[in-house]
Write a structure and sequence with these properties.
Layout lengths: L1 E2 L19 E2 L18 H56 L4 H5 L4 H8 L4 H18 L3 E6 L4 E4 L17 H9 L1 E7 L6 E11 L2 E10 L2 H7 L5 E5 L5 E4 L14 H10 L14 E4 L4 E6 L2 E10 L4 E8 L1 H109 L3 H29 L7 E4 H11 L1 H6 L3 E7 L4 E4 L1 H18 L7 E9 L2 E8 L29 H11 L3 E6 L5 E8 L6
Parallel strand pairs: 15-17
Antiparallel strand pairs: 1-2, 3-4, 3-7, 5-6, 6-7, 8-9, 8-13, 10-11, 11-12, 12-13, 14-16, 17-18, 18-20, 19-20
Helix pairs in contact: 1-8, 3-4, 8-9, 10-12, 12-13
C-alpha cells in the first residue's frame, strides 16, 4: 500500500489512503513514525518551486523596469514641454533686447554734424560737437555705447569719449561688423570689447552721402542684465553663437567655452576678430546620450544627467539652451518602479493565496452547504421577527402619540370651557340687545361669537391632527402660527404652573417646509417636556425663539429647570428612555418628534445651559412663504 508519513498502527489486511508525501511501506504489524524520512522528497517538486520563484522574481523585475521606463519617459516629456514654453518666453526677451536699438545707428545719417566730421576727421570742433551729440543721444536711448568710425575703421567720436577705455582714437577695422557694414550696409557682432573688456552685442550701420559710404555708426548693447536675471530662475540658461561658443550663461564658468572642440579655421577667425577676448575656448565636453523629441537631448552636465532643450535666436544664427536637472524625474521614476514592483509582488502573493484558498474551499464545500442551509433558515426567522418588531414599534409610536394627546386633553378642556362660556354669555346679551333695538352692540357681540367659533374649530382641528397618522405632502408652514397654536394648547398647564412664556419669531412671516399638524405636534411635545422640567423649580420660565439662518430656520425651546443628566443626554432620542418618574411618560415623545423633524428634512438636538436649564433646537429647511 501507499501511505503518508503520519503515524498510525495498521493491522493485518488494513488499508489507508493519504494525499500527501506517500511512500510504499509494508503494513502488517508496523508502527510508522511522524518524522519525515530525510532525502526522500521528490527532486522535481523542488525544481518546480525554484522555477516558480525565478518566474515570480522575473515578473516583479519586469514590472519595475516597465514602470521605471514609462515614468521616466513621461517625466522627460513633461519636462521638455515645460522647457519649450519657458524657452519661448526667454527667447522673446532676448530678441527684444537685441532689436531694441536697431534704429539708433540710422539716426546718425540725418545728423549734419556727423557727416561733416566724417568728411573732415581732423576738425577738432566737429569732433567735440559730435561727441556731445552722441552722449546726449545715448543718454536718452540707454545703450551701452554709441560711436562713429570712418571707412578705415578709426573711431572718430563716441558717447563715452570722457571715460577710460573709450574707442575714440582706435582702429576697429578687424571687427566683422565693420566689414559687414561697408559691404552690406548693416552688420552685427557679439564679442568682448577691446578697450572696455566688457562683452556686448554690436549693431553697425553704413552712413552714406552722395552715393558713397563715408563711415559706420555702431551701437553696443549690454546683455548682462539678462544673465543676472537667469541666475535667479530655476534651471540653467545659456546662449550659443554661430560658432557653438557660449556667449551668455547663468554660470560664469561656462562663458566663452564651446560645446565641442573648434576647428582650426574657426579659432583663427575668432583670434583675428578678437571675438572672445583672451578666453582659452576650452570645450565643455558634455557627453550626449539620447534625443528627446526634436529640440531636446539628454546629456551629462558636471556628471549629472540633464535634459537640454534649445530654441533658435537671432534669425537662427544663435541657440538658446535650457538645462533641466533630471533628478526629480528620475526620483519619480524610481518611486514608480518600486511601487510597481511591490504591486506585482502583492498581486503574485494574492494569486498564490487565492489558489490556496480555492483548495481550502473545495475541502469545506460540504460543511459550507450545511451551514448555508442553517443560515438561510435563521435569516428567514430573523426577517420574520424583524417584521413583527417593526409592526410593534409602529403601534407603540402611535400609542405614544395618543398618550401625548391624553396629557394635553386637560388643557384642551380648559381652552374649550372658556370660549363656550363666553359664547353663552354673548349670545344671551345679543338677544337682549336686539330686543332693546341696540343693533350695533348686538352686531359686535355676534362678531365676537364668530371669532370664538373659529378659535374652537382651530383647537379641535389641532387635536384631530395630533392623533392622525399623517401622510400629507410637505408644504410651507407658518412658524408663528404653529408656535402660538402649541402655546395655546398648553395654556391651561402654563397657567396652572404659573409659568412665564416668552415667544419671539423673527421675521413674523418665517415659514418652513413640513405639515402644520406635525410641526405643532413636535412643538407641543417639547413644550410639555419643558413644563414637566419646571416642576419644583425656583424660576419658572420658557423661552421660544425662531430665527432665519440662510436656507434654514432654527427654533429653540429653552426652560429654566434643572439640566439634563449627562448620562441621559446622548440617549434622549432612544425609545422608552425618559427621566420622568414611572407612570409620568412612555419615553416616546422625543422619538416621535425626532422622526417627524427628520421626515421634514431637518434635525432635532438637545443640550444643557449653564448654570441651569436645557434647550431643544429644531433646524428645518426654510420655505418661500407660508400658506
Amino acid at each position: 500500500m501507499r501511505c503518508a508519513t503520519h503515524s498510525f498502527v495498521a493491522g493485518k489486511g488494513s488499508s489507508c489512503r493519504l494525499a500527501r508525501r506517500d511512500y510504499a511501506l509494508p503494513v502488517s504489524g508496523m508502527t510508522i513514525s511522524r518524522e519525515p524520512v530525510a532525502g526522500l522528497r521528490p527532486p522535481r517538486r523542488g525544481i518546480r518551486r525554484a522555477w516558480r520563484a525565478c518566474f515570480a522574481l522575473a515578473l516583479v523585475a519586469l514590472a519595475a523596469w516597465a514602470a521605471h521606463a514609462l515614468a521616466l519617459q513621461q517625466g522627460l516629456q513633461r519636462l521638455s514641454g515645460a522647457a519649450r514654453q519657458r524657452l519661448e518666453v526667454e527667447a522673446a526677451r532676448v530678441e527684444a533686447q537685441l532689436s531694441r536699438f536697431e534704429y539708433l545707428p540710422s539716426l546718425l545719417e540725418t545728423s549734419n554734424e556727423v557727416l561733416r566730421l566724417l568728411a573732415s576727421p581732423a576738425d577738432g570742433a566737429a569732433q567735440a560737437s559730435v561727441n556731445r551729440y552722441l552722449k546726449a543721444l545715448n543718454a536718452i536711448a540707454g545703450a551701452d555705447n554709441l560711436y562713429v568710425l570712418d571707412r578705415a575703421g578709426n573711431a572718430l567720436a563716441a558717447a563715452d569719449f570722457e571715460q577710460p577705455g573709450t574707442p575714440v582714437g582706435r582702429n576697429l577695422s578687424y571687427r566683422t561688423y565693420m566689414r559687414d557694414a561697408l559691404a552690406n550696409g548693416r552688420g552685427d557682432f557679439y564679442g568682448v570689447g577691446i578697450t572696455s573688456a566688457r562683452a556686448g552685442y554690436y549693431l553697425s550701420y553704413a552712413l552714406p552721402a552722395h552715393g558713397d559710404v563715408l563711415g559706420v555708426a555702431t551701437v553696443k548693447v549690454d546683455l548682462q542684465a539678462i544673465e543676472q536675471e537667469w541666475r535667479d530662475l530655476p534651471g540653467e540658461l545659456l546662449v550659443l553663437d554661430e560658432h557653438g561658443v557660449v556667449i551668455l550663461a547663468s554660470r560664469d564658468s561656462w562663458k566663452y567655452r564651446p560645446l565641442a572642440p573648434m576647428s582650426a579655421e574657426t579659432r583663427e577667425e575668432a583670434a583675428r576678430s578678437r571675438r572672445y577676448g583672451s578666453a582659452e575656448l576650452t570645450p565643455l565636453d558634455w557627453p550626449m546620450r539620447e534625443r528627446v523629441g526634436e529640440r531636446a537631448v539628454r546629456a551629462l552636465v558636471d556628471a549629472r544627467p540633464h535634459l537640454i532643450s534649445e530654441h533658435p535666436l537671432n534669425r537662427g544664427r544663435w541657440r538658446l539652451l535650457l538645462l533641466d536637472d533630471e533628478a526629480a524625474v528620475r526620483s519619480a521614476a524610481r518611486f514608480a518602479a518600486i511601487s510597481a514592483g511591490l504591486a506585482a509582488a502583492v498581486l503574485l502573493l494574492a494569486a498564490t493565496l487565492a489558489v490556496q484558498r480555492r483548495r481550502e474551499i473545495r475541502q469545506r464545500l460540504a460543511n459550507r452547504e450545511a451551514l448555508q442551509a442553517a443560515h438561510d433558515s435563521l435569516e428567514l426567522k430573523v426577517q420574520e421577527r424583524t417584521a413583527e418588531l417593526r409592526a410593534a414599534q409602529n403601534d407603540l409610536v402611535h400609542a405614544g402619540k395618543l398618550a401625548v394627546l391624553g396629557q394635553m386633553s386637560a388643557g384642551m378642556v380648559h381652552e374649550l370651557n372658556q370660549p363656550l362660556a363666553a359664547l353663552h354669555t354673548l349670545s344671551d346679551n345679543a338677544a337682549l340687545l336686539i330686543d332693546r333695538g341696540r343693533l350695533a352692540e348686538a352686531s359686535g357681540n355676534l362678531a365676537r361669537i364668530v371669532q370664538l367659533v373659529q378659535r374652537l374649530g382651530r383647537l379641535t382641528g389641532q387635536l384631530k391632527g395630533f392623533a392622525h397618522k399623517s401622510n400629507e405632502p410637505l408644504v410651507p408652514v407658518s412658524v408663528h402660527r404653529a408656535v402660538h397654536d402649541a402655546v395655546s394648547l398648553a395654556g391651561a398647564r402654563l397657567h396652572d404652573g404659573d409659568i412665564d412664556v416668552s415667544v419671539e419669531v423673527e421675521p413674523k412671516s418665517l415659514a418652513v417646509v413640513g405639515d402644520e399638524a406635525g410641526l405643532e405636534q413636535v412643538l407641543g411635545n417639547l413644550l410639555a417636556n419643558a413644563i414637566d422640567a419646571l416642576d419644583g423649580a425656583d424660576v419658572r420660565r420658557i423661552d421660544i425663539r425662531a430665527t432665519a439662518r440662510d436656507s434654514l430656520c432654527e427654533i429653540v425651546v429653552r426652560n429654566s429647570g434643572p439640566c439634563i443628566a449627562p448620562a441621559m443626554l446622548p440617549r434622549l432620542f432612544e425609545p422608552f428612555v425618559t427621566s420622568k418618574p414611572a407612570g409620568k411618560g412612555l419615553g416616546l415623545g422625543l422619538v416621535i418628534s425626532a422622526h417627524i423633524v427628520k421626515a421634514f428634512g431637518g434635525t432635532l438636538r438637545a443640550s444643557n445651559l449653564a448654570p441651569v436649564g436645557a434647550q431643544f433646537t429644531i433646524e428645518l429647511p426654510r420655505a418661500v412663504e407660508a400658506v
